[in-house]
Amino acid sequence: xxxxxxxxxxxxxxxxxxxxxxxxxxxxxxxxxxxxxxxxxxxxxxxxxxxxxxxxxxxxxxxxxxxxxxxxxxxxxxxxxxxxxxxxxxxxxxxxxxxxxxxxxxxxxxxxxxxxxxxxxxxxxxxxxxxxxxxxxxxxxxxxxxxxxxxxxxxxxxxxxxxxxxxxxxxxxxxxxxxxxxxxxxxxxxxxxxxxxxxxxxxxxxxxxxxxxxxxxxxxxxxxxxxxxxxxxxxxxxxxxxxxxxxxxxxxxxxxxxxxxxxxxxxxxxxxxxxxxxxxxxxxxxxxxxxxxxxxxxxxxxxxxxxxxxxxxxxxxxxxxxxxxxxxxxxxxxxxxxxxxxxxxxxxxxxxxxxxxxxxxxxxxxxxxxxxxxxxxxxxxxxxxxxxxxxxxxxxxxxxxxxxxxxxxxxxxxxxxxxxxxxxxxxxxxxxxxxxxxxxxxxxxxxxxxxxxxxxxxxxxxxxxxxxxxxxxxxxxxxxxxxxxxxxxxxxxxxxxxxxxxxxxxxxxxxxxxxxxxxxxxxxxxxxxxxxxxxxxxxxxxxxxxxxxxxxxxxxxxxxxx
Length: 562
Ligand code: ATP
Ligand code: MG
Description:
The protein is an alpha/beta fold. About 25% of the residues lie in helices and about 20% in strands.
């Protein structure tokens, strides 16, 4: 991120930080973090958080930490750690040597828990899970104090140590903070802070059989690392008093400020890790990096660039109000970015044979084609032209409708970068379908311009039938049929709303040069869309292109310039 827009733009978070700096808080330092739990792959919502945290650190010449919040051994895995590192790096956020794991602080957290007991601010409780819930009360009724609440400090300490030593079964005891069972904030009603869980952790192995809960762990992780501004999503606003309570109760020397912002929601997709995991596990997609997924790895495989994602995150901005962002805006950002960097090629998605009757049999001419009109440095390439060509079926009409300016009997069009051709007749099969179109070409129009100045209204793309390469094109569409997957009524399965046509695979014919591109190469198929050579399956022998996004530029405008 050389010049991230986030760095330049102010928002309510930068206002808070400016005010802190003005009064000399935190010794003038700004330290932010991105704290993923390694229990899934990152999605575009996480990208938003990464851009925000990293961009904020950059803006203030501060420090950015990547911290794995790996306090729940049963759902976490090193596969996820690795994918997260790859994705954060790819997005352009540089954590330098500041990569941490919450599990590295388990000793420290344990000490803090003992200290809370010693200060009579925590106690070991043996209520069952149901009792625990019943005692908690609800939004209208205060909770009831646990009979264990006044357990002597020494007894709680002893029990807690024995929890750690593995003497008890899962669930036999929990350590709870002693706060206020009547608090209107449910999170303050003596929340659990440590639980017994006999499970191997992906980093600490079997060293621990007790694990800290999120609210207790998170503020300590932030504090230990010297985070100044702990930026999180709005649902944690109600947890903030607890965050502050722990740090105060322990007199932690560093007390970060938690600031909440609205999470990113995107229509026609899901952002829930649980649902994304289900889609993967049930093979409803090909994996976390399926190009239909809203994951960073899926978007990357689809052909989206980090620049486009950062631009999108910047345009939606940082707010305090939950809302739904439009996938059309993301698509716009993708087009804007790829327009500048993608080389153009011709590819025919739905082929119809054209035979140029007056073109010499066996002749091949190489036509000069511009690689990228947006980038003069990109130069030109040579595209082979022969007697038999493929054009799009949709570029021909035997009986043209009004304003149809492409190929039709008796009509002349420009074949892009090649010649003017006029349709003379059609060939049909037994059912009357047009299977080939015969044309004549005007040799004087080579390159696509007539010396006599005559104009044609239509310009169409083509490939040489003899020289073209057949490629698999994967045409992606929205993953879900409904805009707000979260609004699907309870009791109805969100999976019933998956778009059955989110992937269509077709064989297309492309310029031969396309087979040779490296996996991951981003191109534009003229008039069709932006595509990306699949990073896993594309090869010169078996070209595979993923459609990143359809084209919406007006082809008419481009054609008019020629
Ligand atoms: P869960 O906690 O349910 O597993 P999560 O999406 O919150 O899922 P985390 O790994 O905890 O996953 O998220 C890491 C960070 O990314 C958190 O700080 C979280 O606030 C932020 N984040 C997660 N989802 C979004 C989103 N949709 N928009 C913005 N930030 C998000
Ligand atoms: Mg979370």
